[in-house]
Amino acid sequence: MGADTFSPDVNGSAKFAEHLASGLASRGHDVHVVVPAASRAHGTWTEEYDGQKVTAHRLFSLRWPFHDWLRFVMPWTIRKNSARIIDEVQPDVVHFQSHIVVGRGLAAEAQKRGIRIIGTNHVMPENLTAFMPIPQAAKDVVIKLAWKAARRSFSKAEAVTAPTRRAADFFERGTGMTNTYAISCGIRASDYTPDFGPREGNRILFVGRVAPEKQIDVLLKAVQMLPSDLDVHLDVVGGGDQLKNLQQLAETLGIADRVSFTGRVSDEELRASYTRSTVFAMPSIAELQSIATMEALASGLPVVAADAMALPHLVHDGENGYLFTPGDAADLAAKLERVLRLPEDELQAMKRESLDIVAAHDIDRTLATFERLYRGEKVSDPAVSRPSDEERSSAA
Fold this sequence. Notes:
The chain is an alpha/beta fold. It has helices spanning 12-26, 78-89, 102-112, 125-129, 136-154, 165-175, 216-225, 243-253, 267-276, 291-298, 311-314, 329-340, 344-358, 363-374, 389-395, and strands at residues 32-36, 43-49, 52-59, 61-63, 71-73, 93-96, 116-120, 159-162, 181-182, 202-207, 232-237, 259-263, 279-282, 303-306, 321-324. Helix 3 runs parallel beside helix 5 and helix 7 (216-225) runs parallel beside helix 8. The longest helix is centred in the middle third of the chain and has 19 residues, at 136-154.
């Protein structure tokens, strides 16, 4: 498996790659991951995830100067390193998680050797350009070139996947490719603990990278608009380059005493944050699936999310939460207030609906589907997210 971001990075793509690697190892597979080194130390060693051991080939990397944690492998070294590792390991399958550097090298060298290739896209080029100090016109050119580069690498794969149908459609529009499978990143819902007891205060939770595309500033403005009688507290869990800016914004809005910026937390602390919250908010406009939102569903939380990208697959308006107009703080505030003022029986119904929706995203189903792709077996498009109201209406 090749990835340009992997543990200890905290993002959806890294988390999926980690859980896929450990899940496959738990099913008896010999799993090797080719990923950037997380520090100056690089080489090959055993790493443990979810109690499972995988072999990590950590390649020399440097930190991207315009990002607080992102590291990258030298592009001119990846073909040589890929060839060396593939020849040492002799894999049956190569599965790459992005085409940026590592996936590009692994796909090229695996194709030369006739090894089966699977590719999964977690990348939105628009997100990458956010960290480039260049004019918008130049960013548009970079985005176009990035999609062309993606096509070159993904066209080498026997099967291409994306986390949701919308993410697959987005990928196909960008690359001009077709027949992309929609396979959920998956989640082990039993790791999370719903709380159906009486509410003790109103806590809004956001989990994710503190980055521009997450639009946390919209959430802060929405919290400032909420009536004081709701006595709301917002927890922002995650680290990122926008942390200081958002802390300053909270001060400016006069809500600093009602907002906690926790930074990165342990898995135990994260799960506890979900359990004690009343509602989960996801204002991001760039989610190809959103593992954090699935974790919230598994914790039995109603969700208020932007009506953008793949979020409507997880948030069914009026059923387990509400969708709001992206970027519209007033609409977000209105939808949050609607949840926070729900009668107890209606709130409990939303919580149960969240659990029902996330049940379709069981990680074992994801692992079994990828195993079939690895073996070259034919699979039907296993898009596991239930259709939105709009999609159901279209089908009718």
